[in-house]
From TrEMBL:
The chain crosses the membrane at residues 12-28, 102-123, 130-147, 153-171, 201-218, 230-247, 290-310, 317-338, 344-364, 371-390. GO terms for cellular component: plasma membrane. It comes from the Bacteria. This is Glycosyltransferase RgtA/B/C/D-like domain-containing protein. InterPro entries: LipidA_mod_glycosyltrf_83, RgtA/B/C-like. Residues 84-244 form the Glycosyltransferase RgtA/B/C/D-like domain. Keywords: Cell membrane, Glycosyltransferase, Membrane, Transferase, Transmembrane, Transmembrane helix. It is found in: Cell membrane.
């Protein structure tokens, strides 16, 4: 008994050790202290802007606000997307320990480890093997999207990890039949859907199986064997999910602050040319960012194998190898137009890959009777796993180097350290600014920690927009790209230059404001 406990603890320690090795190999110990940048800095700084406003202005939980003043006809930043529980929590941590973005990223890393460890523990029960459980759970951490976006402030990876934790508690219920595990599972499913509504696909799949089992299977054949009271946690958690998205739509409508779609962007409403363009973007760039392509092709082959041998699988596995791909396909179709640059929308579907590999391992383990063959196979999969880790690191590095991060290095980076110059020029912390060019919502505004306006929701190709934003309180114009200064439209607004810092030029707009008021 003591030896068994020792071995259990050893494999948990080994899992944590491998995770830490991967963490350092990917260079996350360094990027943990980097500011938001690279692919989808737009989305990263949205999260940080909401968090910062909770921190600096002590915004009420249900009244989030961001730096860009595009709401309320250009007078406020009141807007919301996903349930801001993580943003609010990080803001409280900042009040205790000071504002450090690494605190935010470290919290996400802890969530990632918790999610992966939960699925590792669940798979040990299903696969009866620490090795295969470790391989199947840690393979998730070889996704460049998970490794890059995971710590980087976005809610998608935490939502996926909460799904993993929810399934862990489902397995605990099967083992112990304690209702408290169902409430815990429902809670984490709820959190995942509040952070990312599309993470609810496996929740829906689980519900479908539970209903099927209740109606069509004899009690002796059921796995979950739910009574009606067991459904209660999963029904009740839908209330806060629907309530939040209803409130978010209401809040954004009242404040005219829509910035994150809670609807669908289906394939059938776009053009044929755009469909080909999105497919081309996915094929050339983002396909290899989800996982090593060979792993994805192998997973597809595994699925075909499972379909061919479906009669030899348990009924619940038959159900999931059919339903989960349908869910994946439904998401791709309903949110197809977002997939041009929003690669992270596929992160929540990694649960499909984990499920396929788990079912496949269960299916073939019984065929591996030779000890020597099992050893050789494990050596092969260790090498395969290392290949995925190496490929992941290479892909993550491309996000910090080259064209993916060119705008940050050439134009935006200087804004991170411009505050001393602002103080020298007399630009106060509460002074609103126009920051161009910046087609994101909050990036340059967050870097400078100034409220104001970017090219998002402001058409600065016309002088009327400049004058309107000046009327609404913009005192300074911040230009981070000198080529923009050649435009005729901008000429009336760059006559009063007050300073220059690296590639950034700053202009006073207050005389223009006085002029327009005369």
């Amino acid at each position: 008994m003591a030896m068994k406990i020792y071995l259990v603890r050893l494999d948990n320690i080994l899992f944590a050790f491998i995770f830490i090795l991967m963490f350092f190999y990917y260079g996350l110990n360094e990027t943990l202290f980097d500011p938001p940048q690279s692919v989808h800095v737009w989305r990263q700084t949205n999260s940080l802007s909401l968090t910062h406003n909770y921190y600096q202005y002590k915004q009420p939980f249900f009244e989030p606000e961001m730096h860009n003043q595009f709401g309320n006809d250009g007078t406020s930043g009141k807007a919301v997307g996903e349930f801001p529980v993580i943003y609010y929590f990080v803001a409280q941590l900042w009040r205790i320990f000071g504002k450090h973005e690494w605190i935010f990223q470290l919290l996400h890393v802890i969530i990632i480890f918790s999610g992966l460890f939960s699925i590792f523990y669940s798979l040990k029960y299903l696969l009866k093997s620490s090795f295969w459980a470790g391989f199947n759970s840690l393979i998730t951490f070889t996704s460049p999207m998970v490794v890059f976006y995971g710590p980087k402030f976005l809610p998608d990876v935490p939502a996926l990890m909460f799904v993993f934790i929810a399934w862990y508690y489902i397995l605990r219920f099967i083992k112990k039949r304690q209702v408290v595990n169902l409430w815990a599972s429902a809670l984490f499913f709820c959190l995942s859907m509040l952070l990312k509504v599309t993470s609810g696909f496996s929740f829906i799949a689980l519900g479908g199986w539970l209903i099927f089992e209740l109606i069509f299977q004899h009690k002796s054949d059921r796995i979950f064997n739910f009574r009606l009271k067991h459904f209660l946690p999963f029904i009740l958690v839908l209330i806060p999910v629907f309530a939040w998205y209803f409130y978010a739509d209401y809040y954004n409508t009242v404040n005219q602050g829509h910035f994150s779609t809670h609807g669908i962007w289906p394939l059938w409403t776009t053009t044929k040319e755009n469909i080909y363009r999105i497919i081309d973007v996915q094929n050339k760039i983002f396909f290899k960012q989800l996982f090593l392509p060979f792993l994805q092709y192998t997973t597809l082959v595994i699925w075909f194998f499972l379909i061919i041998t479906i009669k030899k699988l348990q009924p619940i596995f038959q159900y999931f190898i059919i339903v989960l791909p349908i869910g994946f396909l439904v998401q791709v179709i309903l949110w197809f137009q977002i997939l041009d640059y929003h690669d992270y929308y596929l992160i929540n579907q990694i649960v499909v890959l984990v499920a396929f590999w788990a079912i496949f391992i269960i299916r073939v383990k019984s065929l591996l009777s030779s000890l020597n063959f099992r050893i050789v196979l494990k050596v092969f999969f260790i090498a395969f796993f290392i290949w995925n880790v190496i490929a992941c690191r290479e892909q993550v590095q491309t996000r910090y180097e080259g064209w993916m991060n060119e705008t940050y290095h050439k134009h935006f980076k200087a804004l991170l350290v411009i505050e001393p110059s602002f103080q020298k020029w007399g630009i106060e912390p509460e002074d609103k600014v126009i920051s161009i060019p910046d087609f994101t919502i909050n990036t340059t505004l967050y870097y400078m920690n100034r409220k104001g306006y970017t090219d998002f929701a402001s058409d600065f190709s016309t002088p009327e927009t400049f004058y309107r934003r000046i009327e609404q309180g913009a005192k300074y114009l911040i230009v981070n790209d000198s080529t923009l200064l050649k435009s005729e439209i901008i000429q009336p607004f760059i006559k009063d230059k007050i300073g220059e810092f690296k590639n950034v030029s700053v202009y006073n707009l207050q005389k223009l404001k006085t002029k327009t008021n005369d």
